[in-house]
Amino acid sequence: MHVLVTGGCGFIGSYLVDALIERGHDVVVFDRDQPSLHQNNKATYLQGDIRENLDELMEKRFEVVFHYAAEVGSGLSMAEPLKFVHANSYGTANLLEAIRREGSVKKVIIASSSTVMGEATCRCPEHGVVYPGLRQISQLERAEWELKCPVCDQEVKAVAMDEDRPLRPTTIYGMSKKDQEEMCLLLGRAWDLPVVAFRFFAVYGPRQSLRNPYTGVLALFATRLFAGYPINHYEDGGQLKDYIYIEDIVRANMLALETNGGDGQVFNLGTGIPHTIRQVAEKLRALIDPDLDINCTGQYRPGDARHGWADTDSARRSLGWEPSVSFDDGLKELVSWLRVLPKDVIDDAVENFQAAERYAESLGMAL
After folding, report:
1. Rounded to whole angstroms, how far apart are CA atoms 200 and 27?
2. Do 53 and 172 have their domain in common?
3. pLDDT tens column, 285-303
4. 164-168 own/partner pairs: CB under 8 Å, 24+ apart
5. Whole-number Å distance between alpha carbons of 281 and 319
6. What's the CA gap between 70 and 7, in Å, rounded?
7. 63: burial class by Cβ within 10 Å (0-12, 13-18, 19+)?
8. What is the pLDDT of residues 326-347, one digit of tens each?
9. What average pLDDT does the segment 146-171 reach?
10. What whole-number distance in Å separates Cα of residue 8 and Cα of residue 35?
11. pLDDT tens column, 203-216
12. Is residue 367 very low, low, confident or very high in pLDDT (cuts 50, 70, 90)?
């Protein structure tokens, strides 16, 4: 099968390329970046921008497109909205029009994000299931971190997020991923083109980009520990998040490629088992350097969702998929990979994040 992977030089994209090659597919990678150390020599790499004319690319007559090209970074998207809307919303529309004009593509599989849903799904003792919006600044200034019912203002309990809940992104990044997801599904129905959309929760594992300051809290915490710095976390550390190992993400994508059970649908991909930020920090510290501190700063970022983890029942029913790698086992794999990296790579990762923080602060935003 002739397959196109946009964004195939990225973390998840590079794993997809390897899996597709292993299954005997002919793979073309289209990415604005040059191939990295993880380049697969059996794939063809083309450098380009998803926003440019793609007719020459599509003349290669692909049967399947994995669309993973995107601008990432929730915090920065609030300071540079045009950059994100242009790359994610316009870029996806541009790709879809090129697919329609050429006519050979038989399936599109797209990377969406849990950020399209916004703040957690919650249950109020009095009003049942509710969807709190962003917490008010006045609440955060009082260090009242937990979510409250939008009807009665009582504290509520977060529950797993399913695919049918309202989509209420809290950042431009989340809004642009919602655009990508909905455009692909809507036009797929109109054009009789099977589309599968995956809403990823926090994906982690070896080969994560350490040069990208938005790579995720696991890599950021771990690189700080390896560099000899304490971990500093926001709020009280009680934020509940869902972390999914890269191998489980790839397996879901292969199921979407090889079966039609997910066609026309969107799926949450997470473990369904949340961990607090404090628990994450403690687990990493135990694996890397138990002598380093974990500092609760009490600071906050106004656009942060407090909680969020996946209800994965739909993926189980339609794709026969379920996560197979436990959080503890996945963390060990991540730490083992980081442990053998040169010290200058770890130090550069820490400096990259600090530089990105300074840049975001100069724009009046939190990273």
Report:
1. 23
2. yes
3. 999 999 999 999 999 988 7
4. 165/117, 165/121, 165/131, 166/117, 166/131, 167/116, 167/117, 167/118, 168/117, 168/118, 168/119, 168/131, 168/133
5. 33
6. 7
7. middle
8. 999 999 999 999 999 999 999 9
9. 96
10. 9
11. 999 999 887 656 68
12. low
Q: Are strands 128-130 and 121-124 parallel, antiparallel or unpaired?
A: antiparallel
Task: For residue range 92-124, list pLDDT tens digits in order.
Answer: 999 999 999 999 999 999 999 999 999 999 999
**Same structural domain for residues 225 and 272?**
yes
Q: Are strands 240-241 and 294-296 parallel, antiparallel or unpaired?
A: unpaired
Q: Can you give the CATH number for the domain in which 344 is found?
A: 3.40.50.720
367 is a domain residue: no
Residue scoring higher pLDDT (229 or 78)? 229
Strand 294-296 relative to strand 231-233, pairing: parallel
- Residue 290, C-beta contacts closer than 8 angstroms, at least 6 positions apart: none
pTM greater than 0.85: yes
Q: How many Cα neighbours within 13 Å face the side chain of 37?
A: 5
Residue range 162-187: mean pLDDT, rounded: 96
Is residue 314 scored above 90 in pLDDT? Answer: yes
Distance of CA 171 to the CA centre of its chain: 14
Question: Cα(170)–Cα(147) distance, rounded to whole angstroms?
Answer: 15
Q: Please choose, from the candidates 285, 277, 283, the residue with its C-alpha nearest in 3D space to the C-alpha of residue 230.
A: 285
Q: Is 302 found in the same domain as 258? A: yes
What pairs with residue 47 in β-bridges? 31
Residue 133 structural domain? 121-160
State whether residue 124 is helix, strand or coil: strand
Strand 44-47 and strand 26-31: pairing? parallel
SS3 state at 259:
coil
Where does the pLDDT of residue 253 fall: very low under 50, low under 70, confident under 90, or very high at 90 and above?
very high
The answer on 20 and 151 residing in a single domain is: no
162 residue type, one letter? D
Residue 75 pLDDT greater than 90, yes or no: no
Residues 9 and 107 in one domain: yes
Token output for 344? 């200058």
Which of residues 141, 160, 179 is at a domain's end?
160
Which two three-digit tokens encode residue 124? 């109020």
* Total tally of structural domains belonging to the chain: 2
Q: Which helix (H) or strand (E) holds 243?
A: strand 243-245
